[in-house]
Write a structure and sequence with these properties.
- 29% of the residues lie in helices and 23% in strands.
- It is built from 16 helices and 31 strands.
- The strands form 11 sheets. The protein has an 8-stranded antiparallel beta sheet with strand order 2-3-4-5-14-9-8-7. It has a 4-stranded antiparallel beta sheet with strand order 1-6-13-10, with helices on one face. A 3-stranded mixed beta sheet has the order 17-16-21, with no helix packed on it.
- A hairpin with a 6-residue loop joins strand 30 and strand 31.
- Helix 4 runs antiparallel to helix 5, helix 4 runs parallel beside helix 7 and helix 14 runs antiparallel to helix 15.
- Bound molecules: N-9'-methoxynonyl-1-deoxynojirimycin.
- This is Mannosyl-oligosaccharide glucosidase.
- It is an enzyme of class 3 (hydrolase).
């Protein structure tokens, strides 16, 4: 836990199941730890949460409650419950490591009991004032009887949050003996003297780390309380029975609020499905973080990257394990959900994002702020290019917040929204009026079957084979229609001139113009246009000749173009083709609507029992690798964010007059059923939400847990569009 401030104190938990040779120390979410499941089952985003973690046979439950009071945010308490499941046999000893560390400011004083047990830490920090952190003695699971435990503690210099695991791991030694009275003695690993980290010699410490290690035989319960010095007159310590009753009060309130917000009980979802939806929302809320630092930025005019200005970001993240940082277009989807649960929190996140804008009006797509975030990213992915856009989905979320947004908030947002909108119009303009083009496609097309378009968010989705200024991108054009509409709505709310936005919206939603620019008769669908050849393939080739007297170099996979590219529509049917429908720009009586619905419902094309696949099964690049090392990503898999947009649109077409009204309603019901049933089943089987889902088997793919946009399943269950 941290405060929302740049040089926050941090408190946390690590654990270790003691085995011959050590076992592995757990700390941050890492896919490579292979935990069979973990995630927040309940989390209100503010004051309360319940998390379950399964690590082999160990079941850990971590709960927290905050109690507001005083001048510094009040008190909080943790309860950690450990239990072994299954398999019999002697359970390994379990060590829980509770720590607190400073990071550039604040002071800590250890309070020792008998010179060995770290019973408490007192301290001060800018945001927290004076405080006391108390490590209570463990109890048996019932919370009453004392439990035998060994105690160790560590007092070390901290090289920064991103290296705390290493500090602890490197100070473990197994010279310690666990000796419960009348029971066999066992050796175990515990924190001993800290001898410094490799590579850190000479670096000034960032702060101080104090750590309390409790070693015991599960089952057991351990509590930790944080008491704020300025919160006087508290009714009593928030531990034991008082903590139990606070936890159950919060849990009941969470249930009530969840039902009031999403109505899944009213809709007839049985308890296991409701718990699944609660876990999806909670894991998104549990992933929300406060980040601080500088991006690494390069503009096309600069040779060398430069650090951006210091920035702060309060944001949800796509994945706690794999992408624990902010992503621009992901965040719009996150906030669609969070706007319903906690509108004020959602407004704050959106405001933070808009404050990341530079003087040009650009917002970097991926936010890698601070050392902890940077430690998770390979260097080749660090750079943010300043011509690179990403879909303006924050506007979708803002549209949802609009009816209840306080005017002063909107007034402060508006200049930023205008600058952002102008930036897209200025920098992502297409070759003809009212067309748009994503910048920053990969400049070396011969390395890929189809050069990527990371800016679009649909990475390897097939586009024109030969990137050129002639390209017009359908999805971006549709996003700009939406952007124009939302800017007009905000302007109207504020009594600012909305005319130019409305005009742009009208032009970009003109179905006749859309047809002329993007309808591909040969495909029977809407499409991108550009310099394109359909006759491309990857082939193994020796690209460089052998040097004299050396063995020939390894063959490489390179692109072969068998037919020269020419300006034409791009023959790919998939998510991009659906955009005029997804963003409801097609009129309900559009003569194109039947063909689009047919493509969606066709199993040879986009329909699967698990949701809509990203690229038609009969499309040339369906499930094709892009390079030797780059498997298909948006070339077939089912993605939840786009399925959410499809359901929202079908729901819209099903609720207005039009010749396709009934067809849209049918598709809506079937698609909703398929998507929800599969995500629920995969979650029950694997324990996680996933980044995307196989169109062949429905299995989760990519990284996990992915409680980013996959958690939109909650809104789908609630039919809240
Ligand atoms: C890779 C390697 C630990 C890709 O969800 C975030 C984004 C989406 O915005 C985008 O639409 N994901 C989608 O196509 C993940 C992108 C991760 C890029 C960084 C670094 C990490 O190794």
């Amino acid at each position: 836990m941290k405060t929302r401030s740049p040089r926050s104190l941090v408190t946390g938990l690590m654990w270790l199941q003691q085995r011959e040779g050590g076992g592995s120390l757990r700390h941050t979410c890492e896919q490579s730890d292979g935990l069979s499941r973990y995630g927040w089952l309940m989390h209100d985003g503010e004051n309360f949460g319940v998390q379950e973690i399964r690590d082999g046979d160990l079941l850990l439950k971590t709960e927290f409650v905050k109690r507001p009071g005083g001048e510094h945010g009040g008190d909080w308490s943790w309860r950690v419950t450990a239990r072994m499941e299954g398999s019999g046999g002697p359970a390994p000893l379990l060590s829980l490591f509770f720590y607190i560390a400073t990071d550039g400011q604040g002071t800590l004083q250890p309070q020792l009991e008998n010179g060995t047990r770290l019973a408490a830490v007192t301290g001060t920090a800018e945001e927290l004032g004076h405080f006391t952190l108390t490590f209570l003695r463990p109890t048996a699971e019932n919370g009453e009887d004392p439990k035998y435990a060994s105690y160790n503690f560590l007092d070390a210099a901290s090289p920064g949050l991103h290296r705390l695991t290493e500090v602890v791991r490197s100070s473990l030694s197994n010279r310690f003996i666990f000796a419960p009275p009348g029971r066999p003695r066992r050796r175990f690993f515990a924190v001993d003297a800290f001898r410094g980290l490799p590579g850190a010699a000479g670096e000034p410490p960032r702060g101080r780390l104090l750590l309390h290690q409790v070693t015991l035989e599960p089952p057991a319960t351990v509590e930790v309380t944080f008491e704020s010095g300025s919160a006087s007159g508290r009714p009593g310590r928030l531990s034991g029975r008082a903590l139990s009753s606070a936890l159950s009060r919060h849990a009941a309130e969470f249930e009530r609020r969840f039902e009031e917000t999403f109505g899944l009980g009213r809709k007839g979802f049985p308890p296991p499905q409701r718990r699944f939806a609660q876990a999806a929302l909670s894991d998104m809320l549990g992933g929300v973080g406060y980040f601080h630092g500088r991006s690494l930025v390069r503009s096309p005019l600069q040779e060398r990257p430069v650090p951006g200005p210091e920035a702060a970001l309060f944001t949800a993240v796509p994945s706690r394990s794999f992408f624990p940082r902010g992503f621009l277009w992901d965040e719009g989807f996150h906030q669609l959900l969070l706007a319903r649960w906690a509108p004020a929190l959602s407004r704050e996140a959106i405001a933070h994002w808009l404050d990341l804008m530079n003087a040009e009006g650009w917002i970097p797509r991926e936010q890698i702020l601070g050392e902890e975030a940077r430690a998770k990213v390979p260097p080749e992915f660090l750079l943010q290019l300043s011509e690179m856009a990403n879909p303006p989905t924050l506007l979708l979320a803002l549209q949802r917040l609009l009816p209840d947004a306080p005017p002063p908030y909107l007034r402060r947002l508006f200049p930023r929204l205008r600058a952002w909108y102008d930036w897209y119009n200025r920098t992502q303009a297409g070759p003809l009026p009212f067309t748009f083009r994503w910048r920053g496609r990969d400049p070396q097309p011969e390395r890929f079957l189809n050069p990527k378009t990371l800016a679009s968010g649909l990475d390897d989705y097939p586009r024109a084979s030969h990137p050129s200024p002639e390209e017009r991108h359908l999805d971006l054009r549709c996003w700009m229609a939406l952007a124009s509409r939302v800017l007009a709505e905000v302007a109207e709310r504020l009594g600012e001139p909305a005319g130019p936005y409305r005009e742009m919206e009208r032009a970009l939603s003109d179905n006749g113009l859309l047809d002329r620019l993007h309808w591909a008769p040969e495909l029977g669908a809407f499409a991108d246009y550009g310099n394109h050849s359909a006759a491309v393939a990857l082939r193994w080739r020796r690209v460089t000749p052998a040097a004299p007297g050396r063995p020939p170099p390894d063959p490489q996979l390179v692109r072969e173009v068998r037919e020269a590219p020419r300006p034409q529509f791009v023959g790919a049917l998939g998510y991009v083709s659906l955009f005029p429908l997804l963003l409801q720009l097609l009129r309900p009586d559009s003569p194109r609507l039947p063909a689009m619905l047919a493509a969606m419902r066709s199993e040879r094309q986009l329909w699967t029992p698990f949701g809509l696949r990203s690229l038609a099964r009969d499309s040339p690049l369906y499930m094709q690798r892009n390079t030797e090392h780059d498997p298909p990503y948006w070339r077939g898999s089912v993605w939840v964010n786009i399925n959410y947009l499809a359901l929202r649109a079908l729901h819209g077409y099903a609720s207005v007059e039009g010749p396709q009204r009934e067809r849209a309603a049918e598709l809506y019901h079937e698609l909703r059923h398929n998507l929800v049933a599969n995500l629920y089943r995969q979650h029950a089987e694997s324990g996680f939400l996933w980044e995307h889902y196989s169109d062949g088997t429905g299995r989760g793919q990519g990284c996990h847990p992915f409680a980013g946009w996959s958690a939109l399943v909650v809104l789908v269950m609630a039919e809240d569009y």
